[in-house]
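Note to self: user wants both folds in one dump. Writing first protein now.
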Amino acid sequence: MLSIRNISKTFNAGTVNERKAIDNLSLELNEGDFVTVIGGNGAGKSTLLNLIAGVYMVDKGKIFADRIDITRLPEYKRASFLGRVFQDPKMGTSPDMLIEENLALASRRGQRRTLRWGITELEREKYRETLKSLNLGLEDRLTTKVGLLSGGQRQALTLLMSVLKKPKVLLLDEHTAALDPKTAAKVLEISEKVVKENNLTTMMVTHNMKDAITYGNRLIMMNSGHIVVDISGEDKKHLTVKDLMDLFSSASGSEMTNDAMLLS
């Protein structure tokens, strides 16, 4: 479903600030794979997601989504293939629009706009049923402005909006990092449910090693723009945080000392 072939990305090439963020990286995701991505600051995790999403263009290599070459497509054209949830709950929704209006925009992504009445009663009922799955009471607040929601409610709504059109690939970019632990756990629970119910091919970047082990069927660890650990199936199920740290040390030749990685 997602094929990344020998991609590289260097920022500020030819200057004293030159930094190779991704170095000849290849990765294949099958349909339904839920891959957690972990690594220290500067490992290349978010850069990888930005290259897939088209925020940055690769210097070399190819990216395919469902066998379609999207390497040179601009970000807005990749929207029909990809869903994305950002770290900041304020991104991905319009705060001054109602919940139902945000959902309507998401459900019409990629379609031609017309002058028909904005939201039909049939659509409104569909949104109400969809929101019920969150168990957050949002199905009774369709006419509430999104800016009035809590961070967790807004992030859960963004997640629903990102999968309304059944994307080929869902990108979760540290989407619980800005939430308190209890809310983050709820959003992760919703994320796993949505991914399983829709059989979505998913990449989730996280700094939390326990979350990386708990969720998904595959875990990759990055260091200096490379994938240094790729583990799945039964091996992943039996991982511990200590195992993960030992794997990193063995694969990268250095100790995992990044504070953000050790917090978990």
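First done. Writing the second protein, which came from a different request thread.
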Amino acid sequence: MNYQVIIPAAGKGKRMKAGKNKLLLQLEDRPVIVHTLQVFETDNDCEHIILSIHPDDKEAFSNLVKDFGLTKVAPFVMGGKERQDSVFNALKTIDDEEGIVLVHDGARPFIKKEHIDSLVNRANKDGAAIAAVPVKDTIKKAADGFVQETVERSSLWMVQTPQAFRVSLLEKAHSKASSDQFCGTDDATLVERLGGKVAVVESDYDNIKLTTPEDLYFAKAIIEKSRKGV
């Protein structure tokens, strides 16, 4: 089933300590954002890629789109103050309200086609779906430096992206959040505020988000593992 994908790319990624947009950092033979974009560029079901960018990065992103032959990237959308604003700005450019839209972190270059397909199908069926993996570690709730309780982890999931939605549902959720001046930690939170059900699609632990310098070492290891067919 066809879909469009929004990739908010206007942040600076301060925790990466790169002094520039972390998506422009080199990972092996190409920038991080190109790794991510090529996943969707090569997916026949992806119709358009909508990038929300910072004005300062427009030239850099324009050059990447041209140099790597990224034909599915739509005209850039200017990002907002928060990630949520950047997604909403991009969402406003989509006309097909009954279609499916994915929202994906530009710094997650290892999402797999099989998981994208599952997300799109579940969103088409249920309206909203998120990629996630089961929590592996013991989780404890603490306050003032002391453990208050150990949280039962069997029902806990670490949420990733993509997150997939019926366009009309996500538009309604973002509009409500905007009017309420509510800022959520992810797009699914906005849908949950409407009382909407969000399906969980199990992804894998390679679908990491590159946030700190150490993550680049893990990314290189994932690339090497892929090369070896592990």
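Dump finished. Worth passing along: The domain at 3-224 is CATH 3.90.550.10 (Spore Coat Polysaccharide Biosynthesis Protein SpsA; Chain A).
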